[in-house]
Amino acid sequence: MNLSDLRSRIEKKQARLAVIGLGYIGLPVACEFASAGFDVVGVESNPQRVEKINAAQLPMQGSEPGLRELLTQVVKAGRLKATCEYQALSQCDVVLICVETPVDEHFVPNYAALRSALEGLSKVMPDGCLVIIESTLSPGTMDHLVTPLLEESSGKKLGEGFYLGNCPERVMPGKLLANLRGIGRVIGGMSPETAETIGALYQHIVHAELDLCDCLTAELVKTVENAYRDVQIAFANEVALICEATGGDIWQVRELVNKSPGRQMLFPGGGVGGHCIPKDPWLLAYGAGEKGVALQLIPAARRVNDAMPAHVADLVKQALNLAGKRIEEARVLILGVAYLEDADDTRNSPSLALAQHLERYGIKVMLHDPFVPGYQVAVDTAIVGSDALVLMVKHSAYRQLDLANLKSLMRTPILVDGRGFYHPDDVRKLGFSYWAVGRDNHNP
Ligand code: SAJ
Questions:
Q1: pLDDT digits (tens, 9 = 90+) for 85-108
Q2: Can you spell out the DSSP letters for 119-186?
Q3: 121 CA distance to ligand 1 centroid (A)?
Q4: Could you give the CA distance from residue 241 to residue 268 in angstroms, rounded to a whole number?
Q5: What is the distance between the alpha carbons of residues 289 and 275, in angstroms, rounded to a whole number?
Q6: Residue from 137, 172, 225 whose mutation best tests the ligand 1 pocket (most atoms within 8 A of CB)
Q7: d(CA 340, CA 361)
Q8: pTM to 2 decimals?
Q9: Tell me: the pLDDT tens digits for 397-442?
Q10: Is 180 exposed, middle or buried (0-12, 13-18, 19+ CB in 10 A)?
Q11: Which of 255, 227, 279 is nearest to 102 (CA)?
Q12: Cα three-residue angle 391-392-395, rounded to 5 degrees
């Protein structure tokens, strides 16, 4: 099939769609296209996830407004089917690839999942198939990895036997559907006609601007927008350290700085987690490094943010020492394991990094999270006999905690605030020794 025939089938919603990878990115987009009227098959490596999806059960916990209902609607309508078999792709006109693209311990992209998806697809890819990579890629990957791998494995030629584009996702756990529907997308095509065809597809589900460009630009935009955010957060974290040392209050400083025209300081905190921000700067840096550009600022920002869990651990240690507690006998409860408030995603969780630092000091660590399975023992049970409570995630449920009651259950009333969640006076009035990222900890 040529691009103009494909485009016409897309416009009439007759094109048969497939999504490889039914995770936080793939499942919502598969549901959205199915709901828009396309027949969608999802290819997923995890058989339990396949089973859940075909039973219209959401495979993730957190609060994802509208997704559970949407999944039920499209599965019951027979518009979305999940399978582990790549053979299902042999009948598809358009294949979206939504697999993880993490970096390894040396900050080098780990494209194992992407390679596996591309190789699986190549074996069964029909002529004229349109392949769209939604995964985040190091700049240059479409040219140097995706295209040659698809051509060599399938024996087809780009632009004749198949078409190729890169449409990076901009979702956020907790707002998966809202972001998918309401945030504009950059659409890169290996040819302008391909970008236009992909635009014709996404206009069925994205009710925001679609910016068409080449694939390198799409790869750069995605990694740069997240590196930008990481640098902004690192700036806030470094100013937080200045405020702690000088006795300032970062939350007041940030509010007043942002009254200055053109300033938009972000929030400091106990660390930067998630599947995007901690790794996309490294994907960008890798692409730059391949071209001989040695970066300074972007890697430094990563180091600042990655040092925040250790900084919170140091605050806990200082608090215990001041309270005369023996570190190796202390018990600490961490509130929040997910990397973001009101979500269940624990990828690159700063809380888990904090727990490792505390355990290295010999501290017994307990963790609580209302959304993450395995961490849901009631707070007023887990806190009994503890020497410090550490707030690491601003889950809404934590607003309901009765701090006076929790203090009465603790052995030592220390509260360490990693997210500016509490007002120092309110907490100290209850008798807590209050410590915080970005605040004056000289008189806790
Ligand atoms: N964080 C801070 N300070 C801030 C903002 C975030 O410490 O001011 C921390 C969070 O606690 C979290 C991590 O950074 O641990 C990431 O938070 P995030 O708000 O950036 O959430 P993500 O990782 O889901 O970011 C995604 C990104 N979207 C995509 O990559 C598609 C990001 O570009 C968006 O700006 C963000 O969602 C959003 O705000 O929607």
A1: 999 999 999 999 999 999 999 999
A2: HHHHHHPPTTEEEEE-S---TTHIIIIIHHHHHHHH---BTTTEEEEE------TT-HHHHHHHS-EE
A3: 32
A4: 9
A5: 22
A6: 172
A7: 26
A8: 0.93
A9: 999 999 999 999 999 999 999 999 999 999 999 999 999 999 999 8
A10: buried
A11: 279
A12: 85
Indicate which atom in ligand 1 lies nearest the CA of residue 170: 31
Q: Please give the distance, rounded to the nearest whole angstrom, from the Cα atom of residue 276 to the centre of ligand 1.
A: 8
Q: How far is CA 248 from the centre of its chain?
A: 31
CA 431 to centroid of ligand 1, rounded, Å = 34
Q: How far is CA 279 from CA 273, 299, 393, in A?
A: 9, 11, 20
pLDDT, tens only, 170-214: 988 788 899 999 999 999 999 999 999 999 999 999 999 999 999
Q: For the chain, first and last CA: distance in Å?
A: 70
Q: Count other Cβ atoms within 10 Å, centred on residue 2.
A: 11
Active-site residue 167, yes or no? no
Q: Is 84 a catalytic residue?
A: no
Residues in contact with ligand 1 (CB, 6 Å cut-off): 169-173, 225-226, 229, 233, 266-267, 269, 272-274, 276-277, 339-340
Which of 171, 180, 277 gets mutated to test ligand 1 (max ligand atoms within 8 A of its CB)? 277
Neighbour count for residue 202 (Cβ, 10 Å): 20
